[in-house]
Structure formats: C-alpha cells, structure tokens
Amino acid sequence: MVVEVGYARAWDPESRAVWRPLSTGEARERDAAGLPYVVVYRAAGREVPLEVRLVSWRDHHVGLWVYDDQGRRTHELDLRLLDDPARLFHRYTVAWTYPDPETAEFDPKTPRVILDLFPDGRGRRLEEPRGYATSAGLREDERWTDRPAFGEWPLFSAQLHGFTEPPVFEAAEAPEVPEDDGQEAPASCWRPPRPAQPGRIGELFRPGVRVTDGYHPEQTVVEPRRAGTVRVPSGLLAVSGLFTTHQNGPHITVPVPPGEYVLDEARVAFSYHCEWSDAEVEATDPTAVRLLLSETPAASWEMALGADDDLRLFIENQIAGFDTDGATGCFADAGSFESLLSLFERGMADGEPDLDGFETLPGGSMFIHRTWDAVTSGELMAFATTGDGTYPVWLGRCEAGELVSVVVLIEGMPEILPEPEREGDAADV
Length: 429
Prior knowledge:
Blueprint: E1 2-12, E2 17-22, H1 24-33, E3 37-43, E4 51-56, E5 61-67, E6 73-80, E7 87-96, E8 112-117, E9 123-128, E10 132-135, E11 144-146, E12 168-171, E13 210-212, E14 219-232, E15 236-241, E16 252-255, E17 259-274, E18 279-292, E19 300-303, E20 322-324, E21 328-333, H2 337-349, E22 358-360, E23 367-372, E24 379-384, E25 389-391, E26 394-397, E27 403-409, E28 415-416, H3 425-428
Parallel strand pairs: 1-12
Antiparallel strand pairs: 1-2, 1-3, 3-4, 4-5, 5-6, 6-7, 7-8, 7-11, 8-9, 9-10, 13-14, 13-28, 14-17, 15-16, 15-21, 17-18, 18-27, 19-26, 20-25, 21-24, 22-23, 23-24, 26-27
C-alpha cells in the first residue's frame, strides 16, 4: 500500500483540511525549531486521511488522530516529550467504537475507552458512557514509545486499517508555499492542549457587570462583600482544602509579603420565580472568594500549581488546585498551617467547647470559621465551596507582574454578558 505524506502548518478537524501546506524542508525546519506543524497520511482513492499527526515540541506534545472511511475520528493518542529526549510518554488515549456507519462522530452514546496515564505509574482505564473505571494495568514499556527522527515515523494505524504489509511512503506533491505573513491559524484549527483558562475573573468584582451561570439568564455583579482579614506572617500563603482524606500539608502555597490581607467575596444579584410562593424573588449569591494584596487591578491571571504539578502533562482544560472532601477550603498562613489545621479540626470536627484559637463566624458569608496561632500570629480563614472536588486557585498580576490578588471561584467561571447598548450608540455607528 502506497501512503502519501503531506505537511502543513495546521489541521482543521471541522473541514478535515490542512491550513497553509508546507514543503518537506519547511516542515523539517519547523520540527527542529519546535514550532507546531501537522503531518497528513493519505491512501489513494480515499477521501479522508488515514491519520493525522500533530506536532509541537515546544509544548512537549505529539498528537495522533486516526480516521475511519466515514471521516470519523476513531482513535486519539496524546504523546508527551518529558525528560528523556529519546522517548515519548503515552499520556492520554481515547478509542471510539461506532456501532454502524451512520452514527455521528463523537455521538455521546458511542462506546469509548479512555486511558489516562502518569509517569509515576498511576493510570486509569475508563469505559464510557458506562462510567466503569479500573486501574490502567499497563507495563512500563507499554507507557512509552521511542521518539522517531523527522521523516521516520511509522503509520501507527496500519493494523487498524487492515494493512498486511508495511506501507510505502511517498511525499505529497510539493505545494506552492505562500510567504509567511505571521497570521495565526483559524480558531477552528488544531492547537496543542492547554490547561484550563481563567476567563475574565476581574469582572466578577466590578459592580454592574452582567453575567449568567447558565441557569439564571442574567445576573448583575454587585459590590464585593468585605469578609475580614487574614494574617500571613511567614510570607507564604496556603490555599488548601479541609476535611480531605489525604491531608499532607497545604495543597497550594503562594509567596506573598508578610502582612495582614483583606478577604472579600464577589457577589451577583438576580431575580427568579419561586414556585413555592408563586412570586418573583430577589437573591444575592457569591461567585468567588478573594485575598486582596493590593488595590491595583489585575491585568492577567494564571493558575497556581502545586509542588507535584507538571504543565507538560496537562491535557485540554485540565485544572490544578486544592481538593476537598468536605466542601471547605481556606486561606491560611503556610508557616503555621499544621497548628492552624489542628485547631480547626478540634473546634469543628471534635467540637471542643471554649477552644482558644477557633471561632465560628457570623452567618451570611462564605467565610465560616477562623483559627489563629497565638505564638506565630498566623491565621486561617475557612470558606465554604459548593461541593467536593478540585478547585483551581487563580493568581492575579498587575501590569508590572506583581501579585495583587488570589481568587477561588466557588462554582466555576460565569459567562460574561455583553454590556447593554447605551442610548445613542446606534446613531454613532
């Protein structure tokens, strides 16, 4: 079987077409420079590709998408370049089994198997839509593959496509390559996997901004509620879960200047129809909690990482953060964390009466408990989340790059709605 090999700057999965074809030489240059490019493998007489390889060494990533005769993706392989330049790690794999040729690509009812692997030996095999999960159970040599040199990659899907003999590769006809005008690929094109993005977090603390949580069609940001302060004398802020089954120090630590910092809550106001009273009801709900280091607005946001988090392993929209089994998180002084946590557990879980160093805060706020270490002056302020799970911690930085705020979203980032058109705007157009 003859397989034609072509190169391009990008691949559009919606149209199943390349964007900005490349000559072999140009693709080789991009490979050496670590820049993104794609390789498309086609068989004569077949409208859709056999597979598409998606390369971006600067992102430590090689993807592989396999297509069936109907143009549906049947396998997706995510390989990562880590510390060994000669090997690639099998980070993530999805395999779909379409029951018939008419089933749409990615139909939610289509059986699929997901392998989610980590270099330390952890791994999970998930069968969907059943939701059945087991250990991946793979040997070390099954988690890694040799990294081929440019132009020497095998056709990974040869067996899936029924090839009985090794394919013969031929270069696609060299395209007329336009000059590089610096334009980015269209949004519909493939790009390397990215961790979860912050969204416009600062807007949640700006009164008058309109948002929606997907359930209430419109909510309006109101003035943040100032909930108190927390002392961080050690200069290391802890943002962590409480009531976790595997507590081993704070989940996230962030260096800050030693001091006492304001804590406040972002809130939204909205109305809804209450079925019980058959009336329109006004409500105000929190959306985020914040430690404010400076009144300077944040110009950018980044996700805080734990000591074991490695961005080279993050799949699309993956989050890092603190875990909680008791719907509770905290801002605390990391230098006093163990003593503060002990006081919290004694006051909350054990219910010791008149415990010095623990208090329950008045109702009406997401901040619910406070503990303090009389020796170090370090404090812990516990806040409620909307459930168990992992909550990312977002670091806001000003234009100069200095940390100005630390934010935890209570239940994800609401959608920011467009500002209403002001009277006279239409006439100005």
